[in-house]
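Appendix B, record 7
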Amino acid sequence: MMKQAGFFDVEERLARLSGLGDQLEAFSRTVDFEVFRPDLGQALAYSDGSKGGRPPFDPVLMFKILVIQTLNNLSEERTEYLINDRLSFMRFLGLGLSDRVPDAKTVWLFRERLTQAGAIEGLFNRFDTTLRSAGYLPMSGQILDATLVAAPKQRNTNAEKADLRAGRIPEDWQDKPAKLSHKDRHARWTLKFTKAKRQDDGTIPATDLAIPFFGYKSHISIDRKFRFIRKWKTTDAAASDGARLREGLLDKTNTASSVWADTAYRSKANEDFMEKQGFVSKVHRKKPHLKPMPRHIQKSNAGKSVIRSRVEHVFADQKSQMGLFVRTIGITRATMRIGLANIVYNLHHFLFLEPINANA
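Structure tokens (predicted):
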């Protein structure tokens, strides 16, 4: 009799969660996660189970765990704990109270297998196909931008830094696999410039602040109409933004040819490249050296800024809501982390747009 009451108690609690607006339940209603199954299966190349041992967890269930982890910026250990603790997480994963929950190591191994298989691009493209099928075609041109993504700082000597910049493994690390596995050889230092704040006496310093920053850089192209991420790339933090424009960051399927971006993307090479590829540059113009900015360029840039600023909402969403940060070592894993954040942003944004369209 007690067991029966417990079951109804859970049902009642879940109903209450639904009433309070369970975001994960909305994900389940709006997104068919089964679309990811073929890509996951291919990447994992699961054994047929004839080798004995426990059968692996369902790949779609495991992928949904990565979605939870990315959405909430959780470590593997915290993910395992919260799946056991939260009814909303269990419901999203289709797990009952008595079902086995994957442990932290299983979650880590799953993500590692996807990472080593280079699966993230295929998974991202799979959901992009879903968006297109739902009518969200890339339209009205595109906006490019990049943001820095922090990684755990490394304490290296000057000689070690010089070796890393030259693409060499420092001699002292070569015969120490444990040390090597904890050293990020791909993340880089750069300077992050922030606008100087107004002082107490009302004056604004003439120079902006330059803050040292260590990690990676996320480069994206969003479509202007729906603001979904359509193309993306991960580099070390010191890589220039502008050169990425010519490395597959432009979406040729957009129904309009305009490209908006800030002055970091303004170069002769980029302008020539866009013209050859049939794109129309709306990239901000730079201020002439040692001369004041001409009025007409100032006005033109201001008009472009209104459109270009839309891309900043994407990064704000990823950093404030998801707490985007790279906990892992190396560019391959950083690409997986940033790629997952891009998929989750698109999932989240799809959720936001769907009710709007349903009511339109």
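Remarks on this record: The longest helix spans residues 331-359. Residues 120 and 339 are 6 Å apart (CA to CA).
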